[in-house]
Write the structure tokens for this entry.
Amino acid sequence: MRQEEDGVVDDDRDTYLDAVLIGGREPASIVVVDYDDAWPARFEALADRVRRALGPRVRCLEHIGSTSVPGLAAKPLIDMLLIVDDVQDEAAFVPPLEAAGFELRVREPDHRMFRTPQRDTHLHVYATGRAEERDYLDLRDWLRVSSDDRILYANVKRHLAQNQWNDMNDYADAKTDVVLDILTRARTWRAASARPTDA
């Protein structure tokens, strides 16, 4: 989200988005709906398309984001996390994914994002070993067990959805503080869960 101090607008974020978004920024009306029991099946159908397109090049493929958390209100958009060996080696995964109906939308140094023509799916691609993989999964798994943070996150999203956004990335940026707050609790929970119990 653009920051403004003393009447001066910081356009660094806009410049960055112009550089990494394929096709430019798009005005976004955000719709947040109640959880839909059909979302896991939608993920599985999409995941099957990805696996058929890439075969053994898929190192990990997970349902992430709000639609992966039962009971959590969300944009009706399936977020997927795909881990490959090398995100810079686009020849290994971009043409097969495009042939399977996914369009490359974001090209960042360590991240690619595809979407479907219907704009109801985001497929995030990272290389193995990136911190983003752990963060996405920690956040998802924590929200699956914490009703308090599910309610908090849903309320923030519904509030932000009342605004008009220059681009969906601006909406995502506006959630950053609450996501980082929840992620802190998720990491604490994950660390505690990983500790061996006393015999």
